[in-house]
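User: Could you check the structure of this?
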Amino acid sequence: MAWLKSLGVFALLLIVGAWVINAYVVVKGKGRTFQTPEDAPAVEAVIVPGASVYRSGKLSPVLRQRMEGALRYLALHKGVKLILSGHAIPHGYSETTAMVEFARANAIPEKDIVVDDRGRSTYVTLLNFRRASPLRRILIVSQDYHLPRALYIAQAMGFDSAGLVVSEDAAQSGSMPFREYFTRLKDFLLLRVSGWFNAN
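Assistant: Sure, the predicted structure tokens are below.
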């Protein structure tokens, strides 16, 4: 039937459009990623986006990798601000509390730690930091599947940004990239809508 054919064409266009947007985000955000702290540029702030924390307060493998990567960079660049961003699950864990405790246990000075406990997503984390701080040269520490989107958002918000890649946890490799595909679409649209409102 004609309507079924039209529906199929529309669905195909949506799929192709989603693929193009996803590829665009990856290409735009992949320019300044570094594999080691030694290769990463000097910045004013290191941002660690939150991830899961166990009820015991122990960091998940994904978040621990991010924190350890940030600490390796800070060992080479004393005095750089460490931005710990995440959120708390009601009657559950607090990402930022666990991250702060980990940073303190690894001798990061209290004066260098900045906490954002309203970082529900990468987009919100970077938006909160842009509103709260004049610092614009930043290093985002995360897994390789996440960094292209994070850097794309940061560049769109006016940051001079770079990314430090940490290893992806093998237990997460099956599900996280698939979810990331749709999150890239969401953030692309968020940036377009917010840009339109700011221009009008």
